[in-house]
TrEMBL record:
This is Phage integrase family protein. One of its GO terms (molecular function) is DNA binding. Residues 58-136 form the Core-binding (CB) domain. It comes from sediment metagenome. InterPro entries: CB (IPR044068), DNA_brk_join_enz (IPR011010), Int_N (IPR057084), Integrase-like_cat_sf (IPR013762), Integrase_catalytic (IPR002104), Integrase_recombinase_N (IPR010998), Tyrosine_recombinase_XerCD (IPR050090). GO terms for biological process: DNA integration; DNA recombination. Keywords: DNA recombination, DNA-binding. It holds the Pfam family Phage_integrase.
C-alpha cells in the first residue's frame, strides 16, 4: 500500500485478496490521499470493501474515442493509429475497461498475428497499452493495466529484402499509373509512406528544388533536395500551388502496392524497404519519365 503522484494528482495503491488496486485521490493534496487510503484499509479490514463500486465503468469504445480526440490524432502516425483503433473497437466494443482481462487481450493479439504479422500485433498491443495508461492518467479507470502484463511477440529483424536492379525495374513496370510516381518518389527521396501520403504542394519549393517534410517519424521537420530526374515527375502532376500531391490513402496505397508486387513476382518486400534504394543515381536507367 502506498501513495504516489501522477502529474499534480495524488494516487493510492492497495491490495485486497492478492489483487492490486490503484485509485486516484482526485486531489493535489497529499492529506486527501492519506485519508482515502485510510478509508480503503478500513473497508478491507472490516470486510466492506467492494471494488466494483470504486472502478470506472467507462467503456472501451468511449475511452478509445477520448484517446483519439485528446492524444492520438495529434501524432504523425495518426492515420495508421486510426485504422488500428477501428479494429480494436470492433473487437472490444462497449466492454467496460475493468472487464477486459489478459486472456481477452491475448485472444485479440493472437488473431491479429495470424491475419497479419507479429510486428503488426505488437503495434496493436502498444496502442491498447497506451489507451489503458491514458485512462489511468486521466482518472477514467482505477484498475491495473492488463495490457502491461502481456509480453510482445518476438519479431525477426532480418525481414528486409534487397532487390536486384532488374527486380526494381519489374516492380515499377507493374505499378499502375496512380502509384508509379509514388514508388519513384520513395526511391528518389527515401521518404516514408506516411510522409508521401501527407505531402502537399505547399511543402514543395520547385524553384529552389527542395521538399519540406513537416510530419516525420521523429517529429523533426527536414528538407530533401529534388533530384534532377525527380523534377519531371513532380512537374507532370502539378496542377496548382496547393493541395495534396497524391490523392490516395495509406490503405489504398498498400492495396495498389501489394498488387504490383504480386504482378512483379516479388515476395517478402515492403513499401518501407524502398527507402534502402534512396539514390537518385540509380533511377535514370529504369524510370520512364513523363
Amino acid at each position: 500500500m502506498g501513495i504516489y503522484r501522477r502529474g499534480k494528482t495524488y494516487w493510492i495503491s492497495y491490495t485486497e485478496n492478492g489483487r492490486s488496486y490503484r485509485e486516484s485521490a482526485k486531489s493535489d493534496n497529499k492529506r486527501a490521499a492519506e485519508d482515502l487510503l485510510h478509508k480503503r484499509k478500513h473497508e478491507i479490514r472490516e470486510g466492506i470493501f467492494f471494488p466494483g463500486h470504486n472502478l470506472s465503468s467507462v467503456s472501451f469504445k468511449d475511452m478509445a474515442g477520448t484517446y483519439w480526440d485528446l492524444h492520438a490524432k495529434q501524432k504523425p502516425s495518426a492515420q495508421t493509429t486510426q485504422y488500428h483503433l477501428k479494429m480494436l473497437v470492433d473487437f472490444f466494443g462497449s466492454t467496460p475497461l475493468d472487464k477486459i482481462k489478459v486472456p481477452d487481450i491475448l485472444q485479440y493479439l493472437n488473431g491479429v498475428k495470424e491475419r497479419s504479422s507479429a510486428a503488426t500485433a505488437n503495434r496493436h498491443h502498444n496502442i491498447l497499452r497506451a489507451i489503458f495508461n491514458r485512462a489511468l492518467e486521466w482518472e477514467k479507470f482505477n484498475g491495473t493495466n492488463p495490457a502491461a502484463k502481456v509480453k510482445q511477440f518476438r519479431v525477426e529483424n532480418s525481414r528486409t529484402q534487397f532487390l536486384e536492379m532488374a527486380d526494381i525495374t519489374r516492380l515499377l513496370a507493374a505499378c499502375d499509373s496512380e502509384i508509379e510516381p509514388i514508388v519513384s518518389l520513395a526511391i528518389l527521396t527515401g521518404m516514408r509512406r506516411g510522409e508521401i501520403v501527407n505531402l502537399r504542394w505547399e511543402h514543395i519549393d520547385m524553384k529552389n528544388g527542395i521538399i519540406h517534410v513537416l510530419k516525420t517519424k521523429s517529429g523533426e521537420p527536414r528538407e530533401i533536395p529534388i533530384a534532377s530526374n525527380l523534377m519531371p515527375i513532380l512537374e507532370a502532376r502539378r496542377k496548382g500551388d496547393g493541395g495534396p500531391v497524391f490523392n490516395i490513402s495509406t490503405r489504398a496505397l498498400n492495396s495498389h502496392f501489394s498488387k504490383a508486387l504480386k504482378l512483379a513476382g516479388i515476395a517478402g518486400f515492403r513499401f518501407h524497404d524502398l527507402r534502402h534504394y534512396a539514390d537518385p543515381r540509380i533511377m535514370p536507367s529504369y524510370v520512364a519519365l513523363p
